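Usage

Read records sequentially. Each one opens with the input sequence:
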Amino acid sequence: KPVLLVLPSDHSVKPVDSFLGAVRTALSAAEDGFLVTFGITPTEPATGFGYIVRGETLNDNTACCRVERFQEKPDVDTAKYLLAAGNCFWNSGIFLFRADVYLEELHKYAPEIYSAVKNAWEKRESDRDFLRPDAAFFASSPSDSIDYAVMEHTKKAAVMPVSLDWNDLGTWEAFYQTMPKDTDNNVILGDVLQEESSGCYLHSTHRLLATLGLENIAVVETSDAVLVARRDHLQNVKEIVTRLKKEKRAEFELHPLVYRPWGSYEGLASGERFQVKRIVVNPGAELSLQKHYHRSEHWVVVGGTAEVCVGEKIITLVENESVYIPLGEVHRLKNPGILPLTLIEIQTGSYLGEDDIVRLEDSYGRIRG
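and closes with the structure output:
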């Protein structure tokens, strides 16, 4: 019966061979019907991680133990108590279990999630290389973690203790702790000049970042925002995110670099009635046949070859050539070459939102956006 290893995409795990060995050891417990989570042996009374309190050892797998209980992220005093107890582990959020056992427990303890995803799967559609669960049923599923929905309730939870150099990279402080430091104990990424600064996390992605006389400060520069914070306050970034959401700021919903099935686009500049993007189309890919009610567009090819449909005309453009798409005109963009197509798109009009796309045909089954 299929066994799933479920891993978050943003964890740092070293050494990998030790982790793989733990997975192999825990496999028999998973095959016997236990939902195995991996508990990291704690090295300090950390308050940024949840904890697992272990119970009795499994009879037929002496490496794994039953889970006695899960502990939410503790305060400092509770974390010190848990560390001193010697029977607690950091909750890694990594799981190993049989698919059928997990679905049984999900059905038992989170029936609304189970029902939504079951219906989404049963109503799935195939489209080329894509398998599309029913969007409405999938969207109707409550949002919850494996821990909250199943692991904290099931009688089949087991923990596999592991001693690893592990971090869930959930904060910029976690990146500081895991990255190599310079002679002033700074982590420096990107184009950074620092003078008399120490113990800092300095991360620039788009421009020169310069610091003078800083201590234990994080500065993170991206294309749409700059974060400046004391390192011991970085766990509170979620409060800023909450404000962005509450105030309906565009930064909460939109990112400068957006991936699409055909490639990606990145916002470069914007102002009143104009917007500039860099568009990259993968070899052989094409955008939808579409039109806009509120904007016109200029496309300038800066790399590769473009096949452009404008109304009834189909034209081929190469580097340094351009085309104008009038407001309301039906158009399409395709990369017929074997190299990525890169172009600059200049939009002008009264409304420049991504929802001003009327798709007439689409290779990826999309309707809008």
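Summary fields computed downstream for this record:
- The chain has a mean pLDDT of 92.
- The first helix runs from residue 16 to 31.
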